[in-house]
Design a protein that fits this description.
The protein is an all-alpha fold and about 160 residues long. The chain has one domain. The protein has 6 helices and no strands.
């Protein structure tokens, strides 16, 4: 495994630690405030970003290095970043003012925010999968076009 892939694995591992400690700070006796604070939400977002960025870095280093860019890979990257933006908007809804609670009351990490975070992470994960399998998807789409494209009408 080359150095770039190792950095990606390190980033993903660090992201997992940030994400876990942001969601469960009491696991290391760091739960000093009631409820969920802005620092915890920032830690969860940092963890999600590092997880996804590390996964992209590993896939780039092991599969796509020294290959020309393709539209499918670009779609995968954009889909992953869209998932992170969706998760950030869901997690920071109360802080940015479009959530259901006021910041003065303390931020709340409710079930809707958790669902939004999970949906955002799912979208980002699909983006990583599209990025990782871009060459195989392109080959599959080309074979479909050759078999069922114009001029190949089957009676």
């Amino acid at each position: 495994m080359n150095r770039l892939a190792q950095i990606g694995v390190l980033g993903s591992a660090a992201g997992g630690v940030f994400f876990f400690l942001g969601l469960f700070p009491f696991s290391v006796s760091a739960d000093a405030t009631p409820g969920v604070g802005v620092i915890q939400i920032g830690s969860v977002l940092t963890g999600l970003f590092l997880l996804v960025a590390g996964a992209y870095l590993v896939v780039y280093a092991l599969i796509h290095r020294d290959q020309p860019r393709s539209l499918m890979r670009d779609i995968g990257v954009r889909l992953g970043m869209t998932g992170l933006v969706f998760a950030a908007a869901a997690l920071l809804a109360d802080v940015m003012g479009f959530g259901s609670h006021e910041v003065q009351d303390g931020s709340l990490f409710g079930w809707l925010q958790a669902l939004g975070m999970l949906i955002g992470f799912l979208i980002a994960s699909i983006g990583v999968l599209v990025y990782a399998t871009a060459e195989a998807l392109n080959a599959w789409l080309e074979s479909l076009t050759q078999n069922f494209g114009p001029g190949n009408e089957q009676q």
